[in-house]
């Protein structure tokens, strides 16, 4: 509610605080949401390292948006070295889990990869 200003005045700092409380309880969506805020600097200082950690926690629980965001970070090299194999793995998992944006992003990542990288990534994919 604080994030979107629904029923109360929008307050991104409060939104981050509540997301973090839920994140600390292991909720996948709650881990993804503050990750987005750290990535974009909404309510907090931009911190790609923190965003990456939160996306990783969310993605490992099978949350499609966390998987997509983690794949984007590996593709762009935000908070981590660029890694097309890891980008492919996480974007593929997001696509398997119904991520609408994941397919298009995955096609773009694939264009930048060697056949060997694609083969290595495909071996690593297991749906979660």
Task: Set out the fold topology.
Layout: H1 12-24, H2 28-40, H3 48-60, H4 64-76, H5 84-96, H6 102-111, H7 115-124
Name its key features.
128 residues; Serine Threonine Protein Phosphatase 5, Tetratricopeptide repeat; 7 helices; 0% strand; elongated
CATH superfamily: Tetratricopeptide repeat domain
Q: Which topology does CATH recognise? A: Serine Threonine Protein Phosphatase 5, Tetratricopeptide repeat
Q: So what's the overall shape?
A: elongated
Class, according to the CATH hierarchy?
Answer: Mainly Alpha
CATH architecture type: Alpha Horseshoe
Extended strand count: 0
Note poorly predicted spans. none
Written account of the structure:
This protein has 128 residues and is mainly α. The chain has a single domain, classed as Serine Threonine Protein Phosphatase 5, Tetratricopeptide repeat (Alpha Horseshoe), CATH 1.25.40.10. Helix content is 66%, strand content 0%. The protein contains seven helices and no strands. Helix 3 packs across helix 4. The chain is elongated, with a radius of gyration of 15 Å.
Outline of the structure:
The protein has 7 helices and no strands. The chain is an all-alpha fold and 128 residues long.
